[in-house]
Write a structure and sequence with these properties.
Layout lengths: L10 E6 L26 E2 L8 E7 L2 H8 L7 E8 L4 H9 L2 E2 L2 E2 L4 E4 L21 E8 L6 H8 L4 E9 L2 E2 L8 E3 L2 H10 L1
Parallel strand pairs: 3-9
Antiparallel strand pairs: 1-3, 1-11, 2-3, 4-8, 4-9, 5-6, 7-8, 9-10
Length: 197
């Protein structure tokens, strides 16, 4: 009987650009991960919508993927969010306390207003500009992953999201990756992520 050696699992941190689907194939021919990643047998652990940018983890380890995506593990996910108008303390408090979305209240979150816009790569398609509507940047920290949760939360408190960039999942950050770049996580980084949940 021929026994083949099993490859050790691989886990990647990828900076997903705007307008890229978080999958490897698309019947409609839209941009996918296959344009950027040619590592066999890795799949996204969680989602990051086509119109969102930032950190996406991919792994060949099914147990780790479940650990990253299962909300019971409370793995934090940090987002930089550009919103319409400047949220006041009441709006930030509502985000932190939890917002009712589709009959379900979101878990308590971290929400803070940034004093300066973050240093981010330009987006290929600029956000819509409205001369008389100011914008602001928030840092939001969530410990769950409802569908389009950040956008729904900011809209629920009266501040629609214009741009959304995920910068961290647990202890793993974008670091110095540029849009479209990826790096392989070390065994220590994977262990730290499992421990942090």
């Amino acid at each position: 009987m021929l026994v083949t050696a099993r490859r050790p699992p691989r886990t990647l941190a990828f900076y997903k650009p705007y307008d890229v689907l978080p999958c490897f194939t698309d019947p409609d021919g839209r941009q996918t991960l296959s344009r950027y990643i040619d590592v066999p047998d890795v799949y996204p652990a969680g989602r990051l919508d086509r119109d969102s940018e930032g950190l996406l983890l991919l792994t060949s380890d099914g147990t780790l993927a479940h650990h990253i995506t299962d909300p019971r593990h409370l793995l934090s996910k940090v987002y930089l969010v550009q919103v319409e108008r400047v949220p006041d303390a009441a709006a930030l408090n509502r985000l932190e306390a939890g917002v009712l979305l589709g009959g379900k209240r979101t878990r308590p979150a971290g929400a803070r207003l940034l004093e300066e816009p973050p240093q981010l790569a330009d987006r290929p398609v600029p956000i819509r500009f409205r001369k008389h509507v100011p914008t602001a940047w928030l840092e939001l920290t969530l410990r769950e992953g409802m569908n389009r949760q950040v956008r729904r939360m900011t809209a629920a408190v009266g501040h629609p999201t214009l741009r959304l960039v995920r910068i961290a999942i647990g202890p793993i950050t974008l670091g110095d990756l540029s849009p479209g770049q990826w790096r392989e996580l070390t065994r220590q980084e994977v262990a730290d992520m499992v421990r942090s949940a």
